[in-house]
Amino acid sequence: MSALLSSLLFFAAGAIGAIIFANRERWATLLGAGGVVLGCLCGFVPAARVALGGAAQSLRMPWDVPYGSLFLQIDTLSAFFLIPVFLLCALAAIYGAEYLEAYRGRKALAPPWFFFNLLVASMVVVLLARNGVLFLMAWEMMALSSFFLVTFEDEKETTRQAGWIYLVASHIGTAFLLVLFVLLGRANGSLDFNRFTASSGAGLLFVLALVGFGTKAGFVPLHVWLPEAHPAAPSHVSAVMSAIMIKTGIYGLFRVLTFLGAPPLWWGFLLCGVGLTSGIFGALLALAQQDLKRLLAYSTVENAGIIALGLGVGLIGLNAGMPAVAVAGFAGAFLHVINHALFKGLLFLGAGNILHGAHTREIDQLGGLLKRMPRTAAIVLVGAVAISGLPPLNGFIGEFLIYLASFKGAVSLDGASSAAMLITIAGLALIGGLVAACFTKAFGIVFLGHPRSERAAHSHEAGLAMLLPGFILAAGCILIGLFGAKVVEAMAPLIAGTTGLAISLVRTNLAEIAHSVAAVSYVGGALVSVAMLLALVRAIALSSRPVRTAVTWDCGYAQPSPRMQYTASSFAQPLTETFGLLLQTRRIVAPPHGMFPQSASLTTQTPDPYQAYIFRPAFRAIGRGFSLLRPLQQGQVQLYILYIALTLLLLLLWQLA
């Protein structure tokens, strides 16, 4: 525990140092980024040790706060989530040191480093906290620090709007968590987690946790802040928020499940439903986007849905007394937590390279970047293949485990449980197809073809500090894909501690699962090796021959232009039209007129249906309701004191009654 406390001290030192040297921006960057890197290095080793089955460590200190205590503990569940926190945040800090240089002279660099250190520290405390008051304080600190990072470019109206949407959504989720902990504390006489036990209202507590933590995780329909906040934030912050911060919501859900006892069947059904809805809607909305970072944000919603699917399948297996189903489901959910952290962090950093080099996030303004940014293209290609769930990379392994659990459940269970497993299989297959189409579109339109704008034509590659983190994450995607069986076997202490199953039983089931994973990994690795060997043979054969470059088939046009290439929306049109009833895509057409038309255009817009038809009208109605109270706000202090006195009088009378 001393190493983890030292990491928190490094984060604090980095934050304070950045503020002290605010007028010397190079020092502020060095201290801010250095604090994060040193703190993460200090905490990574003890986290990995405990995650692999080491003894839990705890620290309890007195705290003069009602129901509060400075109770910190690292067990296998906390340690597992801390590993990607320390890895991603260290790499993001290295990346951000170069990325933020573009803002030197235009924006103060000390504040973002102060809040970045605060964000990392608060996430660590959230994962270590074992008291409700301490947890909620760290949770609130995480929300506020990330809010200030999202609004870094606060001179933009869209950024300010994104920040407010995020702040409101975060506090709605926190309100549900506050009720959750109040009910747990009232039932158990303490807010220390080790005092929490199952109660008669476990179903209500589960729903409160699902809404409160699901808001942070990005489950549909609570996801509306993600596509606003993630594009607005600096790219290294977007990577941390999407790859790491939303996982605190997943962690909270896992943690609460350890308090509530044996899960009823409907909990698994509900999570499978939430997972399918989030996965399908997230993939569809990602497919329809033309902003690269917004596409990645909706993809995060989809991946949160996949994790929920794995957890739901695991809970159904636990309820049915089927350890094979439960272990495979939980293993798939946990592995996808790590996998998503790797490839989504990689993709957001790659998007930052594109924004840094081409100065735009609009997919239809890009194209031809493969020749201009080949290293970024290689990084993004690995991420795109991994997130599409294709072998032999890590994304496939996590989804394969959920498929495996669902197939076992469909064969072994009866009635509604078997039907839920079959629906999960079909839904996961649909999600996989949509995601593959989405990232084929993203990579193809951005990197292939000809530049669609002057910005793309004059784009340039990023520097080493912005490329190195991407290569490290890409290596992680490849290694887990090739050695996934070892990773699966190493999760035995984690799954046993979370599910309550005997570790010997968990190890037996994981050994069987790992055998299947190893077979798939070997086949995938062999196919990739054959493809690389053929490419090498081709290169050697062509090395002794003259090779010339020619244009592709141009349909007979004498002067083809970049405008004649596929656009992001035209590439996705067959699928978006198929799901048009769900997406409600709008077409804005300016048709050609006359014999010799000078211009014509077709634009499509796909609003988020939950934001457009549910949340925005609801908040407008709430705003109109609150506007009726404006006459009470006169700006006179005496009147406000009268309001306070009247409120106290009413409370006194209510208490006496």
Protein traits:
two-stranded antiparallel ribbon; mainly alpha; 25 helices; 657 residues; 3% strand; 3 domains
Count of distinct strands: 4
Low-confidence stretches: none
Q: In whole angstroms, how far apart are the ends?
A: 51 Å
Instruction: Categorize the overall geometry.
Output: globular
Largest sheet: 2 strands, antiparallel
Q: Assign a percent range to the helix content.
A: over 70%
Structure, described:
The structure is a single chain. The protein has 657 residues and is mainly α. The chain has 3 domains: 1-261, no CATH class; 270-484 and 568-584; 613-656, no CATH class. Helix content is 72%, strand content 3%. It contains 25 helices and 4 strands. It has helices at 2-20, 25-51, 76-99, 110-128, 132-150, 157-188, 202-217, 226-232, 235-257, 265-287, 292-319, 323-358, 369-372, 374-387, 394-412, 415-447, 454-457, 464-482, 484-490, 492-499, 503-543, 568-578, 580-583, 609-627, 637-656, and strands at residues 57-61, 70-74, 586-590, 601-605. The strands form 2 sheets. It has a two-stranded antiparallel sheet. Strands 3-4 form a two-stranded antiparallel ribbon. β1 (57-61) and β2 (70-74) form a beta hairpin. The protein is globular. The mean pLDDT is 91.
